[in-house]
Amino acid sequence: MLIYLHIPFCHRVCPYCSFYKHTPGATPIGTFVDALVAETKQRLAQTAEAPRTIYLGGGTPSMLSPSLLSRLFAGLHTSIDFSKLDEVTLEANPATFDAAKARLFRELGVTRVSLGIQSFTPHVLEILGREHSVEQASEAVAILRAAGIPSINIDLMFSIPGQSKADWEATLRHAIALRPDHISAYNLTYEEDTAFFESLRRGEMRENEDHDAEFFHLADELLSAAGFDHYETSNYAQPGHHSTHNRGYWRGEDYLGLGPSAVSTLGGTRWKNIPDTARYVAQVQSVGHALSESETLDAEARRLERIALGLRTCDGIPLDLLAPEARQRAAHFAAEGLARIADDRLILIHHGRALVDPIAAELV
């Protein structure tokens, strides 16, 4: 089982981000941390399976003060045996930690830090509303390395308004030169309830699939040449640094989501927590959980998810997940050079990897 903890606080809200997040407000962060620890304890007491990974996402988990980070992890240690975990990931903004705080990450048991950098081009960072500079982003990698963090990821984004192909290439080369263990390269998507989506709706921004594909293939070319394994549509890793937590998601493993708006899927049941921090705290304090909605996933729903997620990975999907007519379409994709079939599995290759969503739609 995988555990995800959602920390919703950010110093500022980026215009492209659709995750539940907000600046610190009326709810004291310490009170929230106590509620998160309480929910973790309650949920794990009801679950027979022991966790094998923890992922702290947000929001910006790294903006928690050293004392609150220590308080959070001390609480987690009372419910979880960290010695049996394969991976503990913390998302971090380069502007929210220094060398002392990075050392604390390691002392608390963090084995992997995912840096939300997005770009190494100043004007692109400004468009994205990021609070860190290029210099801070570069220094953050060195700080984490000096602190002994075993695995460091850099998150990057492409097809950003105002970003040229030269900008994207320069960002990729800058990232490679920093020698991280993992790089995630995400295509910007315009999600509802974001400022970017409203700009798209008004015609101030535009999507361009050809542009997206060009940027995608440039990342694949440069990162693969630098020794990174392109093991999932948006993810590249040096040997031994694939994200265990994220691979679990893509393989359809059970996961427990804790914190406001977090989603869980256990034993065929999926539920979501209240997407409101104050109400989340109040409900955890009163009943021990913050469930707001749930559904039962039948076998067909799980099959469709396994196809959509599995096609994103270098492992592909078993052919027996596909209906007979879908297997014929899979053979057609292989004949066109978009996929290969090996050991009764369908694996997307070359240009097929950039077309994962429309291909998946043809197979479900």
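^ that was protein a. below is b, sequence first then the tokens
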Amino acid sequence: CARVGGGAGVGGAAVYSRLSQPETVVYEGERPQVQTVVNSNDGQPMTAEELYAANLASCVGITVNTEVNIFGQITTSAASGSGFVLTQDGYIVTNYHVIEDAAEDSSVTIEVSFANGDKYTAKLVGGEQDNDVAIIKIDATGLTPAVIGDSDKLAVGETTVAVGNPLGTLSNTVTQGIVSALNRQVTVQNNDMTLIQTDASISPGNSGGGLF
């Protein structure tokens, strides 16, 4: 089950609802929902190898490109992050801080990369800065959505696998750990958050990726 990843851990989010960017709505119609994941191996937990293979197509790398004018010379700076597919028709979840520059400047471009080499330009649908969650949209169909988990069913000590794009160059990297703690009260930039703590390695560029 996927959850939105951040630099210090992972927070659960129900993101089929209104997000800020005033009056933005991700969707209002009925869309078929994915079923609860069923583990392989006769009900035994999936291995890291199996989780990675099952979810790689749902994980994306995100690059945010900003043009900067330095003494009359135009150069491009890039910030990187991760995300995961929410719907078959191209809605993708990431962290707000990954795409924050695009929220503030319409000239900033967002590029989404898949493990199979496909790349798309994305548009920002909306986000909640306080909860560090954002939705972007690419023009694609037939994608593989990640299965959204129920954080209330987690137990400390359960195995976790993070898939993301650390440092913006090590795409499709998997790291393994455990659920170290639940309901961690953390304050980030004056925002109080309740988070899942994991010791799976999470580096800059992993932000927004899934924890499975």
